[in-house]
Design goal:
There is one protein chain. The protein has 440 residues and is α/β, with parallel strands linked by helices. The protein folds into 3 domains: 57 residues, no CATH class; 111 residues, Aspartate Aminotransferase, domain 1; 235 residues, Type I PLP-dependent aspartate aminotransferase-like (Major domain) (Aspartate Aminotransferase, domain 2, 3-Layer(aba) Sandwich). Helix content is 44%, strand content 14%. It contains 16 helices and 13 strands. Helix 14 runs parallel beside helix 16. Bound molecules: 4'-deoxy-4'-aminopyridoxal-5'-phosphate. The site of 4'-deoxy-4'-aminopyridoxal-5'-phosphate (PMP) has 14 residues, from helix 6.
Length: 440
Amino acid sequence: MSHKSLSGQIKDKLIQQALERKLKASEQPSFNLSAFSRPSEIQESWYRFDQHPGYKHIQIIHQGSKQFGINNPFFKMHDGIAGATSQIDGQTFINYASYNYLNLSGDERVSAAAKAAIDQYGTSVSASRLVSGERAIHRQLENALADVYGVDDAIVMVSGHATNVTTIGYLFSSNDLILHDELIHNSSMVGAQLSGAKRLSFPHNDYEALDQLLNEQRHNYERVLIVIEGLYSMDGDFPDLPRFIAIKEKHRAFLMVDEAHSFGVLGKRGLGIRDHFGVDGKAVDIWMGTLSKSLASCGGFIAGESALIEHLKFLAPGFLYSVGMPPQVAAPALAALQILLDEPERSHTLAKRSQYFLQQAKAAGIDTGLSQGQGIIAAITGSSISAARLSQNLFNVGINVQPIVYPAVPEKSARLRFFISCGHSEEQIDKTIQALHEAI
Ligand code: PMP
């Protein structure tokens, strides 16, 4: 390995030996416990879930919320379709807690496509597409996505999160480098960790810092992946894509863009950040997106050149060893994509309402941070407690918005996060801003 020093190699060897010893020990029959693990020496926290650090952390948060008189803002029970409004426990709320940006979840045509797919194919394809076979709807959806991006092909997987994990985790390994925006989604981070590649973050949207990192590090690695998002869901801002493309070309790196929140939202036709900047689809190596937001379904996709897609179809574990997308999940995504193409006014309205929300919020003196007024608007509250309190106060007057608290964001930038839908009216937004202003 070119980038590893001798001491690094010795360390690896020692770790390997220790691991082998551990594995050997674990092969011993259970009654023959090794010296350091006599039953009396095993701590309770090693065999009880209620002693798990994660569980304890949640209990502390619950107790803290109780002490401050804050109801649990999570796992609210919605009675029907969650769009610009939603019925929760029998009461109708203005809803800012769904990614139904284009109001297509609940659209009759989209629901009808799901029902027709069930009638034709049943509810499950029951195994991996590689072995149990394809359904036409899989290929139709993949071809449509590839067309939208102007690339050779696409692959759909059953989860957006798993798409990032398995794609990054499979394609890169220990001789490689993964550079990602510091605000990258957990799924890309987990994929990078799984890959075993060296992982470094660069400051948010800072392409100059990325260039500098590559000047210093590129020569130490084989493949280099840069991961950014088309629209960042915590702040509602987006990167200068052409700059990132220039940098990846200069350093002969791969560029991956996660369009989970930008597809359907950015661009004149709502076709994402590529549409916004008017760049060639082939200028980005890996386009990733989810079907769960603008496309009103569930799952993830990768679009790119044939060598990438064919490769993933045969070898990415999350595709190869996982069930194919259920027909009633693929069909509504395809129907939603067709509507998105036929009715660009949906994304125009979304852009208008988002801009309106941002302007009104700024006029009311609300700190909207980096928000660009593109589908997502943050209202920075300054502390987790005040974010949770504001969320509850708004809920009490019929507005559903989620608080984002530490550790999801640094404590001083705890916030409320408003997801706008093209179904929101200006009146609903006025009411929200007024209520937020009063609550603050
Ligand atoms: N990438 C980003 C940027 C996301 O925000 C999300 C989820 N919100 C995902 C990937 C995972 O997608 P899904 O929820 O569809 O699994």
